[in-house]
Specification:
Strand order of the largest sheet: 3-2-1-4-5-6-7-14
Structural class: alpha/beta
Oligomer: single chain
Length: 476
């Protein structure tokens, strides 16, 4: 309850007491550690993560899957976490009869299920894709179980679907039954295990084909999810066994983008954002829980080598700001070189990206929407590619816009590249020019292209199903 009220310090104290009372309390260990990450409380961090990994390896109910994405890079352990969680909370529920074969229709019925059909990162990415679906071949349904927000994005999305269904008041079983009654052929889960998710809908089998897409960057470990949509960067061959779903490989990148995202025309200046006029500005607009001690140490090494440079971050909580400044000081960096961004509208946030020189990404959980926001705004993103889906997204985006040279393979290379770009204005300038030139033509922001790709794999899924063939890997 304290967590829901955003009283994070009080919530952590409660978790700490629970850990003393019952160290084996279900899913407490990982959730507590994730909360500490939100507060940038890193005492005993390495030991806590090692202990969590051991608990998961030993089949303990130690964490919900989302927490693990930013704590443990191993896709194998991420899968194990998801499987343990699904068995405990969302195992397949056979209460409904198997779905009878639907008659072949002129249009394939796609259901998108989410709590985020409003001003949310998922909506910012997918809004135009919904609008561009070929209505001659596909009939598009939204199953909304989130808030009925009165915002411009909500109104836009309501007009983007053939049918927009408000189902928040229904149980998981009732929503699955509704989808069956409507003849939904492909149910696309845009939530996975993120906030507001309802995997129970899919545990009841809402449609003959069920797909894990976009909202959750990893496997759901559930035998009732048939496919996960990815690309070659996200899931290389050596990692396929870490995914319970059949993998769908899109040609460029898995991530759609909305080309109608508005960038404010307002001319921002560094003074109003407390940034130095004549020094290099690194930034990272990822959430605090994605920042860990190892990464932060790399950032401080970069700042120490680039005189006067600053690191521009999201504000987070007062406790997180205090802890980050304190850690900077411990590592020999003036805490005033950490600048925290004030809260503004999305259009203004995109506009003020121009004040920064280079976006520094996080690992093991990369920037996702934040990375495409930066690239759309013309700001280069330097990423450190990892092993898991969540840690390879920014690399996928950079390859889709033709900037593979901004993908580092190691901490040392990441630090060296950041320092080189901060001290070689000619090279950085060329990168920015290249980004600006590619933005209008590269696959990353070619929304009609990714829409056609997605539709092609939907067609393949249905063709397999109608032919009585089981789900299998699809490469477009």
């Amino acid at each position: 309850s304290l967590l829901e009220l955003e009283q994070l310090e009080e919530a952590l104290a409660s978790y700490d007491r629970a850990l003393v009372c019952r160290p084996d309390y279900e899913f407490l260990q990982g959730n507590r550690l994730h909360l500490k990450m939100r507060l940038s409380e890193w005492n005993a961090f390495e030991q806590d993560v090692d202990h969590l990994a051991l608990s998961i390896s030993n089949e303990k109910k130690a964490a919900d899957p989302f927490c693990v994405l930013s704590l443990i890079e191993s896709p194998v352990l991420q899968r194990k976490t998801a499987e343990i969680y699904c068995r405990a909370r969302y195992s397949f529920n056979p209460i409904l009869q198997p779905i009878s074969a639907y008659e072949t229709r002129e249009r394939i019925r796609i259901g998108y299920f989410s709590a985020d059909f409003h001003s949310h990162a998922t909506a910012y990415l997918m809004a135009e894709l919904f609008e561009l679906h070929d209505r001659n071949r596909f009939e598009i349904y939204a199953f909304s179980f989130g808030p009925d927000a009165n915002c411009a994005m909500r109104h836009r999305l309501k007009g983007s679907f053939d049918h927009f269904l408000e189902v928040r008041a229904l149980s998981d079983q009732q929503i699955a039954e509704r989808a069956r009654d409507l003849g939904i052929q492909i149910a696309v889960d845009l939530k996975g295990f993120t906030e507001g998710a309802r995997p129970g809908i899919f545990a009841h089998r809402a449609a003959p084909v069920q797909v894990n897409y976009l909202g959750y960057p990893g496997t759901m470990g559930a035998d009732y999810m048939d496919y996960i949509i990815a690309d070659d960067t996200l899931i290389p061959p050596q990692n396929r066994e870490a995914y319970s779903e059949n993998i769908v490989y899109l040609p460029d990148t898995y991530q759609p983008n909305d080309r109608n995202r508005t960038i404010s025309n307002r001319i921002f200046n560094r003074f109003e954002e407390n940034l130095p006029d004549d020094k290099f500005v690194f930034c990272c607009f990822n959430n605090n829980y994605k920042i860990n001690p190892r990464l932060f140490e790399s950032w401080m090494k970069i700042l120490s080598t680039v005189p006067g440079s600053v690191l521009w971050l999201l504000s987070g909580t007062p406790t997180a700001k205090l802890n980050l400044r304190k850690r900077a000081s411990q590592l020999g960096i003036d805490p005033d070189r950490l600048v925290f961004a004030r809260q503004v509208s999305l259009a203004e946030h995109l506009g003020r990206h121009r004040l920064a020189d280079l976006f520094l990404d996080t690992l093991p959980y990369n920037a996702h929407t934040a990375a495409s926001d930066a690239l759309w705004s013309g700001l280069p993103v330097l990423t450190r590619i990892g092993s898991s889906f969540a840690g390879r997204v920014a690399a996928s985006l950079l390859r889709a816009i033709g900037l593979s040279e901004l993908i580092a393979e190691s901490d040392a290379e990441y630090e060296a590249m950041a320092i080189e770009l901060a001290t070689d204005s000619v090279k950085l300038g060329r990168l920015k020019q290249s980004l600006e030139a590619r933005r209008a033509t590269a696959p990353l922001f070619d929304t009609p292209r990714i829409t056609r790709h997605l539709e092609a794999v939907y067609q393949e899924m249905i063709s397999r199903h109608e032919a009585g063939m089981p789900p299998a890997m699809i490469r477009l």
